[in-house]
Description:
The protein is α+β, with helices and mostly antiparallel strands. It has helices spanning about 5-15, 20-30, 30-45, 75-85, 115-120, 155-160, 175-185, 190-200, 200-215, 245-255, 280-290; strands at about 50-55, 60-70, 90-95, 100-105, 125-140, 220-225, 235-240, 260-265, 270-275, 295-310. A hairpin with a 5-residue loop joins strand 8 (about 260-265) and strand 9 (about 270-275). Helix 7 (about 175-185) crosses helix 8 (about 190-200). About 35% of the residues are buried.
Amino acid sequence: MIDEIDRALLHALYIDGRAPFSRVGSVLGVSTQTVARRFRRLAAEASLRVVGLAEPGHAGRTQWLLRLGAGPHTAQDLARALARRPDTSWVRLASGGTEILAVVQTPADDGHTLLLHDLPRTNGITALSAHCLLHVYRGGPTGWRGREVVLTEDQVRLLRPGGEAPVTARPLTDADLPLLEALGRDGRASQAELAAATGWSPATVARRLAELQASGALYFDVDLDDTVLGATAQALLWMSVAPARLDEVAHTLAGHPELAFVAATTGPTNLLAQALCPDPAALHAYLTRRLGALDGIRSLESAPVLRTVKAAGPLGPAPARVRRGPPGPPTPPPP
C-alpha cells in the first residue's frame, strides 16, 4: 500500500516531526514537492499527522490505563465519548468490541475525577479496572521500531535535530499551555501560527520550542494507521512477571521490534505491552516462540485490538478510507 519513499518519509518524521520538507527531500534524494505530496496523501488516507506532546513527568501528570467492559450496543458510543476528552489518549476497542481501553492522564497531586467520579456514573459499564503506569520502557518518545526500518545511519544523523541543550531548562508552566494545545493539534504548525496561538513573538516561540525539546519536556509523535505498514494483527498483552525479574524482562521486551509499547503497571499483572504483527499467525509465533522463551513471565493474557478510536493526539476529523492500491502521484511569554 505504500512504497519505500513513503516509509522513508515516515521514518524521517519519527526522527524529527518538524523537519522541513526541503531537508527531508534533500536527505531522501527527492524533491520538496514530492515529500509534501506524499505527506498530504498519507494524511488523507492513513490518518498521518505529527503531534507535539508534553512528557507526563515534566507536566506533573500520572498516566493510568483504564479497562472497561461494556455491552456491544454501548461500547462504541462510550469509546467515542472517552476519545473526546482532552485527558485521554490511545482509546481502543478490543476483545470482540466489548472491551474499551484508554490511557488517562491525571494531575499527580490531585483527585482523579474521571477515575473516581465520571466513569462510575456512566451507564453501560459492566466492568472497570484502573492500572497506574509506573514506568514506560517503550512508548512515547521511544515508539514502535517498525517505523525505523528504512533510513541509513548517515541519513538519520542528517535528520536528527541539532543544537545543544540550554544551560537551564525552565519547567512547564501555565504560560506554555497555548503552545502545547497548538502543537497537540498540529505538531508541524509554523512558528507564525504558533506565535498567533500564544501571543509570543516567533523568536520566543523558537527559543521555547528548543528549550522544551532539549529538556525532554516536549516530544513529537507520529499518529498513523499502522495497518499501512502491514501491522494488521494488534494485541495488548498483560503479563505477570516475577518482581525480581521485572526490570530485566521489560528491558528485553522493549528491544523486540514487534512491540510498540512496554510499561510496568499496578494490578494483578505487572507488565503491559502492545504487539503489532503482520497477521494472526505471526502474532501466534511471537507469543509462543519469543515470549514463551523468556524466563520470568509467569502468566500472559492477550486481547486483540479491533479499532483505535483515538491515538496520541487530540481527536480530529474522521479519517478518509485507506485506498487498497498503489500510491498516487495573548498569553504572556515565559520570562
